[in-house]
Write a structure and sequence with these properties.
The protein is mainly alpha-helical. It has 15 helices and 2 strands. The two termini are about 15 Å apart.
């Protein structure tokens, strides 16, 4: 998790480590796949099967092999995180959150220093003036930071966190939010806004019956004021103003958005003609343009069966996270489930205009709802946040 932001090359270091740890864990008996939830596991198996079935006549055979391999790896990464949490439980989740946070802070810090020309490497850490850090694409870098921002937000607004803890969480929240802003991804901004609103709404509406709001209203209002003031201050910077003028037009659309929507229409029409799919990773070859939509990519490439399996798995994971907020007695895990639900909703919207199927951190988020805390570990564990 601590190197999960370094994905300039593929396979990335995190990919090799996850596969290695999964294999080592199973062989040694430390991890087991026996307790994995059957329904989502079945849906993942159906998704892989749909990839194989649609493989019958690809335009680019090499890309098809690579694409199905990456999809299979991400399914295995989901298995790994679920099995890891079953084995290490709350302690394991705390380690994952801290390592993820470390990775995000390093990524944003390097990218921001390069963005404002305190250091060089603009050709490595930026893409056309947009912060991408150690990722290949700003559209992936920005959403990667959103879960970290919500982990920190949970620590800022919770009651009685302690001054030093609150300051630390606020600093991480500011860093992650800055990275989201400087990625200049419109979909990411919407993703972030939806995730934050969903977190507050779920925290309030899904709290145990008869309990007070799970966060201090004063802290929540203070957070909102500081966020607005910070954004207004950053928007006054000349470099930020210039990029905002370029990214945010009067209609909210760029010229290439028409190409994206046209490709999505072609992808849908293709699915009607070839309901089994055109093959994994073949959208660019078939339509001469990426679909820029997870749903249209899966539908056109893996057919209706693959589409139902993938969207069903995502919706099931969302529903599971909301159900678990009601079932668990642990304040820590309730907030983890709330953050997972909020981020999944934001990423579902993001997925409508950006291809997110192969986002590593999205599969991590989708794994979180499928851990069930033991009742013996729930009682008395009332802290949450990064530290």
């Amino acid at each position: 998790m601590a190197v999960s932001c370094f994905v300039m090359v593929e396979p990335a270091p995190v990919d090799i480590l996850v596969l290695g740890l999964l294999l080592l864990g199973i062989v040694s008996g430390i991890l087991t796949l026996k307790g994995l939830p059957p329904l989502p596991s079945t849906l993942m198996a159906v998704l892989i099967l749909a990839n194989i079935v649609s493989f019958y006549n690809p335009i680019d055979l090499e890309r098809a092999f690579w694409y199905i391999f990456v999809t299979a790896y991400l399914v295995l990464s989901w298995f790994f995180f679920v099995a890891f949490l079953q084995r290490y439980e709350t302690r394991g989740m705390e380690v994952l959150v801290r390592a993820y946070t470390f990775s995000a802070v390093v990524c944003v810090t390097l990218g921001t220093l390069s963005y404002f020309h305190f250091i060089g490497f603009q050709d490595r850490l930026l893409l056309v003036g947009r912060l991408k850090g150690l990722f290949k694409d700003p559209n992936v870098c920005g959403p990667y930071l959103i879960p970290v921002a919500l982990f920190a937000l949970a620590g800022v607004i919770r009651k009685k966190p302690g001054l030093s803890t609150a300051i630390f969480h606020l600093a991480v929240l500011a860093i992650a939010s800055l990275g989201v802003l400087l990625s200049y991804s419109r979909a990411c901004w919407i993703n972030y806004s939806i995730s934050v609103v969903a977190y507050f709404a779920f925290s309030y509406l899904l709290r145990p019956v008869g309990t007070k709001p799970p966060f201090s209203m004063t802290r929540a209002l203070l957070f909102a004021v500081l966020a607005v003031v910070s954004i207004l201050g950053i928007l006054k910077l000349p470099a930020v103003q210039a990029m905002m003028a370029e990214r945010v037009t009067s209609t909210g659309l760029q010229g290439y958005d028409r190409d994206r929507f046209h490709t999505q229409r072609m992808a849908f029409q293709s699915a009607l003609v070839r309901p089994l799919g055109i093959g994994p990773g073949q959208a660019e070859q078939q339509f001469d343009y990426a679909t820029h939509s997870s749903y249209m990519r899966v539908l056109s490439e893996n057919g209706f069966v693959g589409f139902v399996a993938y969207t069903g798995f995502v919706l099931l994971s969302l529903g599971r996270s909301l159900v678990m907020t009601q079932r668990t007695k642990s304040v820590f895990w309730r907030r983890i489930y709330l953050i997972a639900a909020a981020c999944i909703i934001g990423h579902m919207v993001n997925s409508g205009v950006v291809d997110t199927v192969h986002w590593r951190h999205y599969w991590f988020l989708l794994a979180l709802p499928w851990y069930t805390p033991l009742e013996s570990r729930m009682r008395g564990h009332n802290h949450v946040g990064i530290a």
